[in-house]
Structures are given as structure tokens and as C-alpha cells.
Amino acid sequence: FLAHGHTIPFRSIGGFAAILFVNPRFVEGLECPSCTRFLDGSVVNLLWTVPITQEEYDFAVQNSSAKLLEKAADASRIHIFDGKPKFLS
């Protein structure tokens, strides 16, 4: 089960140690594509996968992913991978 704020180790991207899953509905200013609802009316949840560095991962483990998200230099662009850390740079 994966949801907003969950992290998993992921070392396949040089310089990054983990992936942070982010639901754009919970981050003010973050792009959220328009998704239709399921037939039963429930909401479709989209999760952006955001690579994070070892330092960012350690911070999230020690303090929470919510606290890490608060450290975003530009929350509207955390889902766009440019090879640079998004939170603790």
C-alpha cells in the first residue's frame, strides 16, 4: 500500500536514495491533473513520485514527510525531476 507521504528506498537514480510519494491534493500550489471519479463516486488518487536524497530521506524518517514537504523551495515544482534536490539543498 502506498499513499501520500510514504517513502521507499530507491537507489536507481544517481545522487538520490529514495522516492517520496506525493498526492497533489495535499500540497498547496502543486499541479493536480483533473481526474474523473470512479463509477461509485470515489476520488481517483494520483501520486507523484519525487526522488529524494539520503539527507532528505533521513530528515523524513526522523521528522515526518509532512515536515520535509514544508521545506520545499518551490512546492509547485517538486514533481518535475531536474536532477536537483527539492527540499534540503
Stretches where pLDDT is under 50 for at least 5 consecutive residues are none
Count of alpha/pi helices: 2
Largest sheet: 3 strands, antiparallel
Distance between the termini: 29 Å
Share of residues in helices:
10-25%
**Mean pLDDT rating:** 91
Kindly state the number of beta strands.
3
SSE order, one letter for each helix or strand: EEEHH
Q: What fraction of residues sit in β-strands?
A: 5-15%
Q: What global shape is seen?
A: globular
Q: Largest beta sheet: what is the strand line-up?
A: 1-2-3
Structural class: alpha+beta
The value of Rg in angstroms is 13 Å
Give a verbal description of the structure.
With 89 residues, the chain is an alpha+beta fold. The protein is 18% helix and 15% strand. It contains 2 helices and 3 strands; from the N terminus they run βββαα. Strands 1-2-3 form a 3-stranded antiparallel β-sheet. A hairpin with an 8-residue loop joins strand 1 and strand 2. It is globular.
Write the layout of secondary structure elements.
Layout: E1 7-9, E2 18-22, E3 48-52, H1 54-63, H2 65-70
Question: Nutshell version of this structure?
Answer:
This protein has 89 residues and is of the alpha+beta class. It is built from two helices and three strands.
